[in-house]
Structure formats: structure tokens, C-alpha cells
Amino acid sequence: MPVTVPCQYRTGKTLGSGTYAIVKEAIHIQSGKYYACKVINKRLMEGREHMVRNEIAVLKRVSSGHPNVVTLHDYFETAHNLYLCFDLCTGGELFDRICAKGNYYESDAATLVRTIFKAVKYIHDSGIVHRDLKPENLLFRTQAEESDIMIADFGLSRVMEEEKLSQLTEICGTPGYMAPEIFKKSTLLVSFPPSFL
């Protein structure tokens, strides 16, 4: 008979929600540390369990390796849900900051984009493609104006094994942010000069 382990976290307010999951604030009971906990309904994910296994594999590969990529601290399951515990980013989404500010000065935007590109380079160097980068998946660590920006939500990401490098042809992501090349299923090759980053 399986051993029942008491839950080590207590969940609080809801931070966001998606098709299969909700994200809640959670406190680790023993340490008192706060996390963001993605609570995935196993019944709603039935037949798509591979997506969660893939997300965990991706996060294990990139966690704690870059200051601008969220870290997966813990994951576990109960009879009804899967739980993924991440860094708690309290500064909100880039999308909301853009809306609140109304605009970004070019130098501020350039600094932000450069930081994001460096994090994306780290992700790519780790053999991962994110496939859903958008302002809603870029979170600020704190409310501070100069807060670190973090790449989050690796639900659509893929591990690209070096020996099996191939072109990705699956249409996925958020339609409003997709490049026309994705809809056309044509190749888009982009290279940046080393000085760019």
C-alpha cells in the first residue's frame, strides 16, 4: 500500500488560470517560503499527460541556470492534481506593465529586450525551444521599477536533442503573437551578430 505523505504546502490566493491549470500562491509550511504553485487538474489533462512530463523535463533542464528564467523548486501529485512549485514573481506580467506605463522609452525597451534575448539564448543553448514567448509569459520578480524580468510558462516548450535536430512544424503558441511563417509552415531563419547580445 502506498505511503501517504502530508502536503508540505498550503495554497492561498489564485494568481492566474489557464485551460488545464490554475496558479496559486503557496507557502512551504516548514520553511515559510512563498512560491507560485501551478495546480494541474489530472482529469482535465487526461490523454495529455505527456505535456506535463515534457514541461517538467524542460524545467529540470533550465531551472536555476539563469537569473531571468523561473526555477522549478518542487513537483508532486495527489489523487486529483499535479503541483509544480516555481519562483513567486510578484511584479506582474510585462503585458500589464506596458499597459500601465502607456509606453517605454527606447533605451528601457532595448535593455528589456536584450535581457530577454540573453535568457532565450541560455534556453536555446540548453536544447530547449519555448514556443510561447509573449508579454503575458514574461513576469517581473518584484513590483520594483528595476525588477528582474523572468521567462515563465514552459507548457508548450520542447526539448531538442542534438542528435535529432529537426525543423519544428507543429503549429502552437498564442495565435495573436504567432509569426506569419508559422501559419504558412515556412522556414524562418534568424541570426544575430555576436555584438547584438
From TrEMBL:
Organism: Agrocybe chaxingu
Gene Ontology molecular function, alphabetical: ATP binding; protein serine/threonine kinase activity
Key word Nucleus present: no
Protein name in the entry: Protein kinase domain-containing protein
Gene3D superfamilies assigned to the protein according to its UniProt record, in alphabetical order: Transferase(Phosphotransferase) domain 1
Any Pfam family: Pkinase
Protein kinase domain residues: 9-197
Residues the entry annotates as binding ATP: 38
Family, similarity comment: Belongs to the protein kinase superfamily.
Keywords, sorted A to Z: ATP-binding, Kinase, Nucleotide-binding, Serine/threonine-protein kinase, Transferase
